Batch of 2 targets.
Target 1
Amino acid sequence: MKTFFLCACAPSAAAVSLMAAFFMSAGSLFAADDLNAAYQKGREAFHKGDFATAQAFLTQVAAANPGHTDTQNMLRYIKAHAKPEASTLRRDYAAVTIPKIEMEEVTLTEALAGLRLLSKNASAGKVSPNVIVKGTDLSTKKLSLSLSNVPLSEALEYLAQLTGSKVSYEKHAAILSDATVAVETASKAK
């Protein structure tokens, strides 16, 4: 009778393999969640027009799942339509993280001067942003800003939002121009 009890309680080979399969699939479920998160981030960046970020995430998805049709289609579109960056200025600015920005009731010109100093300190003197402001009305607009641990490129975007302008990157400078003028210029170019 004791022998029978031991045999009934000992796990069978089928039970052991079933448990192993469960634990292995649980790991792949977590990997699938990570893969789905990478796909969603890549897809979001793709639809925003940030092809460099989209390509980074979608390449990870394609490596893990080469048959994913949407990923392959987006990567083909990026390869065919992405313009090569003339400058790495945006990436250089994004690589500088400013620990803290506190500005209250300053003009855009003063804010940019402060941002130059903060980014120079944050990058150990390597990056001092060159920003051109197009429009005298724009440079005199007042703003307040309080940020922490933000990349320089995002800080410039915040300044643009607060002043109703748009940031564009050229080879040697970031340009802040009035958003309405930029829209009119783009519509005339078409």
Target 2
Amino acid sequence: MGRETKSDYARHYKDYQGTPEQIAKRSQRNKARRLMEKEVGSAAIRGKDVDHKKMIKDGGGNGRANLRVTSPGKNRGWKKS
């Protein structure tokens, strides 16, 4: 069904998004976006995703060689680009 009320979102954040592991992952994704924004400019990445060529969970990092700007559909995989 999905989350319906504000308390459901608050519980989800507390139980999942608020964990130290998820906070660290989100921080790493945000850092990758800031690095690309500095290099190519904010207009170039507006409405797009910063993709890790080799996923973080597979040992990839935030090095420039591992980052690229892609459409959200291509990066998220479950949508067609």
